[in-house]
Design goal:
alpha/beta, eight-stranded mixed β-sheet, binds zinc ion
Amino acid sequence: MPKSKSRSSITPAPPSGDTPLRIIPLGGVGEIGKNMYVIEYGDDIVVIDCGLMFPDEEMFGIDLVIPDISYLKERRENVKAFLITHAHEDHVGGLPYILPEFPGVPVYASTLARGLLGVKVKEHKLHKNPLLALEPGDELQIGPFTAVPFRVGHSIPDAMGIALRTPVGTIVHTGDFKFDHTPVDGKLSDFAILARLGEEGVLCLLSDSTRAESPGYTPSERTVGEAFREIMEPLDGRVIVATFASNIARIQQVLDAAATFDRKVAVIGRSMEQNFRIATDLGYLKYDPANIISKDKIGGIEDGKLVVATTGSQGEPMSGLARMANRDHRFVEIQSGDTVIVSASPIPGNEEYVARTIDNLFKAGANVVYHAIRHAHVSGHASQEELKLMLGLTRPKHFIPIHGEFRMQVQHGRLAIETGVLPENVFIIENGMPIEFSADGSARRGAPVTAGYVFVDGLSVGEVGEVVLRDRRALANDGIFMVVVTVDKQTGTIIGRPEVITRGFVHLNEQDPLMEEAVTRVIASIENPGDHISEIALLKSQIKDGVSRYLYEQTKRRPMVFPVVVEV
Ligand SMILES: [Zn+2]
Ligand SMILES: [Zn+2]
C-alpha cells in the first residue's frame, strides 16, 4: 500500500534490468476531455486523473463519455493509486464509473478537490476507495514511484501538476495550468520545485496544450475583477453574473466587486450553491456573511443593491441563466435595467447554445456583456510564452503535449523544439499509444493498447456502443421504414398486403404512390422466395435490399428499413 512520507527521504529503487517505464494516455490527447494518463513500471501502475467528456452532437442520447479502461482492467492488481491534479470534470468526472472496478485503490487529491469529490463519493457510494490528502510540496511514495505535486495557477484553486520520480527518470505532468503572478488567492505557482526538477533532470514533460495556439501570456485572473468593477460602477439596475460553478476564484471576485458597491450577492444554481458551500467551509472563499442573501429574499432587495451569481455561462439549457432568459426561473425574472455578465468563453461546440441564450436575454430586456463585446473572462490555461517558460524551467529531454486537440499538440510540439527539445524527442500521440523509456534514457513508441470511448447512457455504462450510435444517427437522419409481412408457414405465400409503418421519414398515407410502389416491391422481392421460405433471414434481407434501393432512387434518402416477417 502506498503511504505518505516526508520530503527528501526517498531514493527510488535502482532500475532493474530492461524494465521500461511506460506512459499511456487513455484519454486527453486528440481531444479536450476525459483526461487519463497511465504511468507503468513493471508491476506497478499509477493513474493521473480520471475524467469525462461531454458528448458531441453526433452522440445521440449519450449523457457522458468516459475512457475505455480495458488496459487497466487486465492489470487490475497493478493499479496502486489514482492521483488527481484538480477537480474539473474533465479530470475527475470518470471516477464514479471507473473506481468501482478498483476497490480499495486510493485516490489522492488536494483539499478543495477532496471537498468537491466528497459529493461524488456520497452520491455514487464510492466508500471502498480511500480519499487521501496530496498537497503541493508533499512527497508520496507509491511502489517504485515518488509523486511530487506542485502548485500551478488554473481556474480552480488548489490545482497541481505532478512530478513522478521513477527508477528510469523523472516525469513531470503539468496538469491544467497557467502562470498567474497575481492570483486571486495569493498562492503562486511552485516555480522553485519546477526549477529544482529541471536541475535534477527531467526525462519527460507532459504539458497542457489547450492554448498552444495563442501567442503571448494569458492575463491574470485578477484582471477579471477589475472588469467586474468597471462594468458595475455606473449601474443602478441588477447585475447577474454567469460563470462556471467550479471557478471559485471568479466567484470570489464577484463577491469582492459586489462588496465594493455595497451590493448583496445571491448564489443560484444547484452546482454553484453546492460549490459555494464547500469552498466556504474549507476556507477558499472570503466574504462577510451579511452580504450574502438567500435566493428567496431577492425580491426584498433594491435593484441597484443586488448581484446574482449563477451558472449557465455555456448556455446549458437547464441552467440558471437559460431559465432566466426564458422567463422560466423561480427566483429571477429578467427585466429591463438588468445587466448580465457572461463571464466565460463558449467552449467549442457550445457556441450555438450561448448565442441563443444571449439573444433571449436581450429579448427579455437585459443588457448583456459577453465575450465578443468585452472580456469579463480570462482563460485558466497557459498561452505560448508560459508554455515556453514551463519548458524552460523543466528542460525535459522528451516532450509529450497533452490536453489538446491534435493541432494544438502539434503547435505545442513546435514550441518545445524552439526551446531546445530535439525534434525526435517530441511525441505527438493519440489515446492508447504508449511511449516507453529505457534505463539509458531513450524513448520509443510502443504497440498501441485499447483506448476509446465508453458511453454512459442513463444507468448503462458501456452498453451503448458504436453500432447503437450508428442506428441512432440513421434514425435521426432519415427515420425508420418498417415493413410487416405475414407469410403462410406451410406454403410460403404472402397473406394479405404487407403493411408499412414509417416514423421520421416522410409523412405519407397508405394511398401515396411511393408507399404503393414500395409495397409492390416488397411483394416482388418475395414472389420467388425459393423453395424454403423458412429462411427468414434471407427473406428479410431481400425485403431490406429491395425497399432500401427503391426508396433511395425515389427520395435520395436512406431511412432504416426494418423488415418484420410474421409466420402463421
Ligand atoms: Zn481544468
Ligand atoms: Zn482540463
